[in-house]
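#struct-pred

JT: dropping the chains for the assembly here, can someone run the whole complex?
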Amino acid sequence: MNRRSFIKSSLAAAAVGGPLIVPSRVLGLDGAVAPSNRINIGVIGAGGIAGGFHFPALLRNENARITAVCDVDARRLNTARDGVSGYYANSLPAGTPGDCAGFQDFRELLALPDLDAVLIATPDHWHAVIAIAAMKAGKDVYGEKPLTLTIAEGQAMVNATRRYGRVFQTGTQNRSNHVVRGICELVRNGVLGKVHTVQVGLPASIQLPRQPVMPVPPEFDYDLWLGPAPFMPYTEQRCHFSFRGILDYSGGSLTDLGTHYFNVMHWAMGVDHSGPVSIEGHGNFDRNHLSDVANTYQYDLEYAEGFKVTGGTSLPLGVRFEGENGWIFLPLGFPGPETNPTVQTPSASDPALLATRLDDRATRLFVSNDHHDTFLRAVRTRGESASPVEIGHRSTSVCHLINISMRLGRKLRWNPLTEEFVGDDSANQMCSRAMREPWSLT
Amino acid sequence: MKRNTRAAAALAIALCLGSGRPVAAEPATIHPDPIKVVVVTGDHPFNEKTFLEAFDGQPDIDIVHAPQHDHDEIFEDVSGWNYDVMVLYHFSQVTPSPARQQAFTELLDRGVGLVVLHHGTLTYPQWPETERIYGRKRDVGGPFGFHLDQRYTVHLADPSHPILQGMSDFTAEDETYTRYYGPTRPDNHILLTTDHQPSDAVLAWTRSYAHSRVFAYQHGHDSPAFGNPAFRQILTQGIRWTAGRLPEENGGNALSSGSVFRQRNLEWALAALPAYESGNSRSAPAVIESKVSTSLGDAAAGEALAARLAPLLSSPATRDAKSLLLRQLGQLRATAQIPAVAALLKDADLSHMARYALEAIATADADSALRDALPATTGTQRVGIINSLGQRRDPQAIPALTALANAGDDEAAAAAMKALGNIGSQAALDALHEIKPPAALEITRKWALLGGAQLLINSGNVGNAAAVISPLLDEDSPALLRATALRLLITATPADALPRALAALKGGEPETRRAALAGLRDLPGTPATLAYSECMPALDTGTKVQLLTVLAMRGDAAALPAVLAAVTADDESVRLAAIKALIPLGCEECVPVLAKFLTGGSETEKSAVLATLERMPGTAVSRAILNHAVTAEAPVAASLIAIVGQRGATPLLDDLKPLVHHQDPAVQAAAITALGLLVMPDSLPGIIGLLGDPPSPRGRAALEKSLAGALLRMRDKPSTLQVLTSAAAREPAAMRPALLRLIAALGTSPAFDFLSEMAAEGDANDRREAVRALATWRDATPFDLLWGIATNSPDAPTRELAMEGCVAMLALPDARFKEDRMLLCVRALGLTGDVDLRVELLALLEESQDIAVLRAVLPLMGDPDLDAAATATTLEVASKLIMDFPDETAAAIGKIAAEASDGGMRRRAESVLARMREIRASIRAEWNFNEDTGGWAAANQCETALKDGSLLIHSTGVDPFIQVTRDIPPGSYLLTLRMKSDSAGPAQFYWTTDKARTFNSDRVLTITPVQNDGAWHEHQLILTLDDTLRELRFDPSCAPGTIQLQSIRLMIPPSPPAQP
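RK: done, full complex below.
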């Protein structure tokens, strides 16, 4: 029995002979306090962000039960599945079902009728295909950022979320950080007066040295890892964490962290459903490495709402709002859990700006102090998530727009209403990419 | 995230930020295409300013200076290479990595001109290929020699060579080398020679390597050479010659523009690309990608480039090469090459990459190429093409897709139906209606219809969309499909869909119920709100919770009665959802309803109610909360008052004031906190007045704290200060201390001026109170003032108050103290008699590494109040000084070992003494600079002096050094050095021995990196001598500046730990 068939057979045992997991949806007990009200969730992609962030958060959340995990790499899959099952075996009362099923192919996970939701923590090039398939299969989705690889994928995800009536939350957990929310509320309520400029500083992208072609490890379903991306011969650094350096799967640090930072900027400026009208980016692209994303870059954006965004990899990491009354800088670092220490103390031209107390007529922003719990609550109540799909799509679009400008080497005009470039066919063509067969967004 | 950024960063610096030196003239008009030159330096000091000036005044030469920090990182990534010529003036003695070697030689293969200059000709002694590249050949008959400041005549060996045109013999003042170039290689073309001794005879030559021209030139050590017009002319003519701008030989032809490199680059890449395989050098792909990138804004150039690339698709090139070409052709979107691309649609390996290119080309030709490939393909390849046709929404593909849907291949049929849904036109949907798939694919057809219906809705064709959707709702379809159909129908025709939505809401099927809930966002108007609200009683608990949540998201106040009714529902989860829903929907009338939970609800309900009360918007709500608080029992009243403060209900400030004197302390405290949160600049005087009539001493302290917090919010600090100072002048004396502390809490310069003026000029009481207030300042701003008062005031209590503030500030991490902090602590120790302050100061002094501190603290050992603290500080400080002050520290530590009352302290002292003896015994030579220079003397471009137990070196040039004579026997030594520097460049030790009597690069130790940051740093090196050392030389930097040495030691290295 090879490893893959072991996983499948152990799954079959779990599904057939194992304890029955009662889906809360089937019982119609949403909102009730019974244990069966817990959300059954499947985690697709058991890499670093899942292991370091999602699994711990979901395992300790009494409203969730991880009932299935999926990874194309059986080594990761086994570790995750055994870890989840082991955790529940040790923490749940005796006799409580806690076995976790494992799959290498997400389609098998999505076919489980007893799953309420999935959490997608795969590389970026898989996000849209899996999310749309999951929603079509009746699952609510927590989708890791950056939401998409292309703008067209984001549009398709927005449409799919509405069409299938699903709850969707983007993994931009700054939306559940009270420090970030506080600063965004100050800016939104005009503490700085009219904000004319926002500076967004990002880190340089990962650089990957060239590597020789290698044999694919037997535990790794490389063809499924590539999925819709163009075929390229296997080499270790192409996959797992370092995919972030390769344009076939990512947009570099610009999408990886930019989506967090622009998300915060959009929140503060009240342009969650908008975007820039003018984009000019300049990047230094790797050409002799395995990585081919822009390593360092800079950009200038203009919003029709009357402010400019400027930034790149030469500025401190974070978002700086400049207005008539002074400036506020929000350091963002590398966002982790909501209690993330890298969201450091904000600074301002006058500390009194930060101490401002808003009155009882002020605009207040959506309150979430636990990104996972807010998602689970939204699944249960059909309420609002902390970072709905439109918001994730629009903030990721900013990153894609800059990347397109950098790759074309010219300033671009964008219509945020129609989501099209103005008078630039080449740029519009770069809003989508062909997918390797048999994958598509439908 | 760890990154390998060194090479790219260096190149980026070179490209973007480095000392690029655009020529002074007007290259745009005179030389439209200047020669791009990169000047590579590193691993050797040189006068950057005068060296780079040698390139000035050449309108056709555009240089970029690329200093190397890792010997030659410029060769790490040559994919973006854009220089016609490289001038190598670096001195790496480290053989480049294989990848860098390959990159270097590849550049020469691509025709980049090469100038190797002076010590640049000596790089890479262990890399044999450089003999063929540079044309040098090391004479191994004796040791290499270099000879500074030689003056000699240079002869032109071939005056007709283009580089030397118009020149004659000249005089040079420069360094020479001996026994390096030796017998010249026979294929070198000798240009310059000399008869001078000591010097090798040949000074310059040309040659070729791969496709490049090479010019090697020995001159160029320092400013006298750089300033020599002959040197400048030969250097710049050499650059022109290697670029191809001068004929190769006399009588030949030069290139009129461009360079050898630019001519050969694309040709080279096209020739190299067919062999490209993933993982190998990306230089050829990079050249092509770069050309494509620069062609993107120019359609004609793009088509021309595509015409060069496309023929390779039908060549025997590798799969990786063709894959790369297809990506590039997709970027170029060259319509003329569609046939060449489409030919690969049938290639099993490259079909998807051909589609990658074709999907980017928005012309009918690309559509027809895809359609035409359908009959010739099968399996997943055909599925891919079908997907592309759907993605492109090609209306002409409808017949072919319809045929495929009926053709019996399930995979193709499913893809074809999805593609028809993606096309989404009425014709496509009509075709979908006509298709009769096998039963297993019927569901696919229905999903495709829904996909098409969405596109109809998006295009505004809602009537037709509804016609497509409605039958799917009534059919015996799976619940998920019917739910999606309902959701789309609500979007298409909301009014017509409302009854269906309400039925689904009340129905028993979870999926359609969820669709009805999700659809509420697309149902306009209050009637929909009311209709949904009216369903509430008929719903199960879970659905009630969901409906309340969705109604709250909708934000229509028409739902309020239903929500308020749900606040008293039987089920707690429903009550909680209703309480939360009141945040957007609620009003002041909800306050009494909610407040009931604060006395009778569960903890969960109380928590939910408090959250809702805090976030329901509007001042009317705030007032309702306060009104309720006034009549509520004390604990509830306090909670509600706290909420009024949190809500920022500033208009209610005056209503809150009386509550400061409420009989219940909890209510008092809540009111005081709330006042601090609500006070604004205009209301500040009124609140300050409360300080004169506090409910209690504790209440006054709380009010002061609350106001101090409020001051941080005051943006108009001058006006705020005015309010406070006016109050201080106006209000009774009893309020003044608190007001002065508030002024200190304001923390502005004018506030400081006000208090310092009062401290200087007020009456005795004023002065004392001002000092007391200044001592509470949040940073060390008032330190100097307080220090002056602590040392000079005639009033003892004032002095102690000031000193108390000073000690508190000395403990702050304030940069202003720098190295004075310890000194100030010592002085404070002598000034204050307060035991607590002195103990605190001794604790601060434990950080010190200063002998003066040791001397000050030592006498305090034995003092009945201070003995323990003084002993601890003495041991801590002395332990850090055992190397530099061995006798004095040994005495102090010995005293502790012998006399300390604390046994633990005695044992620690004994342990330090033992370690000290061990270290001292290992020292073979030591210079501490406490009393003299120990024989070290300035030898070149510097001056020396003793200062504060260190040797001060003032460097005046680029090659400063000091020397000492000392005999050190052969052996291996740990060489330690403590220094600080504000100069630049690495520091080096050279030495002579019995057998080797000159300083040269055979015997050198380099300290890298030297942090020239003006702070003390300790360095350790291993010095291995196979012969007796006679002289030691220290080159502290490569630039003017100040360097301080505290110690140099040669020690026997500690034995390595025993191997297990």
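JT: nice. Residues 3-173 of chain A form a domain with the Rossmann fold fold (CATH 3.40.50.720). The longest helix of chain A spans residues 389-408.
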